Amino acid sequence: MKRCWFIVFIGLISGVASAQDPQFSQYYQAPLYLNPGFTGITPQQRLVVNNRIQWPNLPQAFNTFMASYDIWVDELRSGFGIIASTDKMGSAGWRTTTLGLTYSYKVRLNEKIVFSPGLYFGYGVNGLDRTKLILGDGLQYGDGHQSLDPALQRLGNQQYFDFGSGFLLYSKSLWLGAAFSHMNTPNLSILNEVSRLSMKTTIHGGARINLSGGIRSAERPSYLTPSFVYRNQSGISQLDVGINYHVDPVSIGFWYRGKPFQKNVIGTVQQDALIFLLGIYLKDFTVGYSYDFTISPLSTSAGGAHEISIVYEFTAKPLHRGVKKRNRLIPCPTFNSKQGFWN
What we know:
The longest helix is centred in the first third of the chain and has 18 residues, at 2-19. The protein has five helices and 16 strands. By secondary structure, it is mainly beta. It has a single domain (2-327), classed as Porin, CATH 2.40.160.40.
């Protein structure tokens, strides 16, 4: 019976891990994770760091850390990037670590619209810390004795390769994209069995609406950036929709995560959280903080979620003189104002 419950427990954990990926409320501040088509949309280089702590009131909160770097090479009309992440959950130290490469190619459809398809190639490893699992015989002997159950010895780290793709269609004021993650449905089982990570489909879009004009706009622009992101994985779907209001260099945002058009089995609307965001946009740095206020049946007992993002954009060399004007990058809409590039 002890072994049966142990296998059931591990199976449930594996099922949760394979059902959904980590998520970020500031999804456009984690661009390479959202869609490889975003690779290389900055003037030249970009460094991004993200950290999310979900349900901090629980004994072991979900903690996700991610970092990425990408560069735009104008001579090749291509963007190249690298992204690394680690995600830890639960008292057994379940951890997933990934490292991936991204690539995108920019096709200028006309003077206003760019098509940016992208690819992702990654390597991952996941597993848990066996020393943190205490079974029946461990409790019987006490003194932190580790179980000798053969089922425990079957546990190990699972390594896998991952593949994804995506595309982005954008102008200076509008964008629409889609991404397809885990297209090869990698096996994540740590029991030497089969537990595949389902493909995730992400659809996102938005706009930038300028509110100020004339001379004042050059001094302190103000604008709105409404956007949405829809995700579907293993039959579980999620919709984030909201708007940011900007008066440079400050931005505030309000977002809703849920599906108000759909009810669950007990007849209530499926909803997850209200998200409040504050951003500071400096010349090269962007710093964002967001808090998820839980409105699901979980209520506020779990502590919601805290998220911090830091983006640093920089140019290391001037534009190559041999690059033809028609091949130069059209700027993608942004959540901040950068004179000379974004405007």
